[in-house]
Amino acid sequence: MGYKEIGTTGSFGRDPHYVREQFDRFGLTSPNNHVAPKATYESFQKWVRREVSTEANRAVYANSFSFDHVHATFEDGIRTSKILGQKYVMWAILLPNQIADRPTIDKHIKLFNELGDMCAKEGLTFAFHNHDREFAKIGNDVILDLFLDNTDPEKVKFELDFYWATKAGADPLTYLKRYAGRTKLCHIKDITATGDFAPVGSGTLDVPTLIKASDDAGIEHFLVEIDRSDDPMGAIQSSIQYLRKTIG
Q1: Is 12 helix (H, G, I), strand (E, B) or coil?
Q2: What is the 3-state secondary structure (H, E, C) of 56-105?
Q3: What does the DSSP 8-state code read for residue 181?
Q4: DSSP secondary structure string, 116-163?
Q5: Any idea where the Xylose isomerase-like TIM barrel domain is (predicted)?
Q6: How far apart are CA 109 and CA 151, in angstroms?
Q7: Measured between alpha carbons, how far is 132 from 169 in angstroms, rounded to an integer?
């Protein structure tokens, strides 16, 4: 297809050494790992195939990323990222109960700084990824802004997801400009007029403008993603064809 990089969700439920062999075989590199133990990845895949409910999938995530387990989860994630040759070790999703009120948010802000230190000691960088719920407000404050404004900008980086920001009613351009230099990766995926996932170039986003703004903001890695699709291979094929035609 022509993709040169691939982001991972853990090591796709496989031995990371095997995954690295496949990357090397096909000339791929991987910049980032959305940390996910095997059980978490398998649950996510069942959700993608519509075999389990969102609530059931969240329950598995909640266990892996609870305060009882999270440091061990990230120790394993760091080991995986080193094998896969990745730079960014990532928190993939903040669940509703993790951002339900200001005290809980503050606990996770403290945790993110701890994970930033943990990754930095291993020569890696911690980052996190947004969905739509982080654009809600607690009092007068946007939850995402609280995380970005109260974590160490040198050790806690950000991956902006264009689809989820747009679905929340936020403007991705605003965040690219406001957090230029802090936002290091982005998920390029399109959104239909009714809010569904769409291959890049087939939805409502002004993709060329977003990519230009991302370049200006210092984005290092653009990653095409589509969370769910009846034809995932077709979706990523049409996405790269659009990007080649539009931006070269």
Answers
A1: coil
A2: HHHHHHHHHCCCCCHHHHHHHHHHHHHHHCCCEEEECCCCHHHHCCHHHH
A3: T
A4: HHHHHHTT-EEEEE--SGGGSEETTEEHHHHHHHHS-TTTEEEEEEHH
A5: 72-245
A6: 6
A7: 8
CA distances to 14, 85, 89, 206, 222 from 22, rounded to whole Å, are 11, 13, 20, 34, 21
CA atoms of 86 and 31, how far apart (whole Å): 5
Q: With beta carbons less than 8 A apart as the criterion, state whether 31 and 5 touch.
A: yes
Are the C-beta atoms of residues 11 and 69 closer than 8 Å to each other?
Answer: no
pTM of the shown model: 0.94
Of 42, 81, 84, give the one whose Cα is nearest residue 61. Answer: 42
The tokens for 120 are: 């930095």
Domain ranges of the chain: 8-247
Distance of CA 236 to the CA centre of its chain: 17
Query: How far apart are alpha carbons 56 and 62 in whole angstroms?
Result: 10
Q: What share of the chain is helix, strand, coil (3-state, %, to 5)?
A: 50, 15, 35
65-93 confidence digits (pLDDT tens): 887 889 999 999 999 999 999 999 999 99
> Which residue's entry shows tokens 């903001």?
217
Asked whether the predicted pLDDT for residue 163 surpasses 80, the reply is: yes
Buried b (16+ CB within 10 A) or exposed e, 140-150: eebbbebbbee
Q: In this structure, which CATH number among 3.10.340.11, 3.20.20.150, 3.30.70.270, 3.20.20.70 belongs to the domain 8-247?
A: 3.20.20.150
pLDDT of 123 strictly over 90: yes
Helix axes 16-26, 70-84, angle to 10 degrees: 30
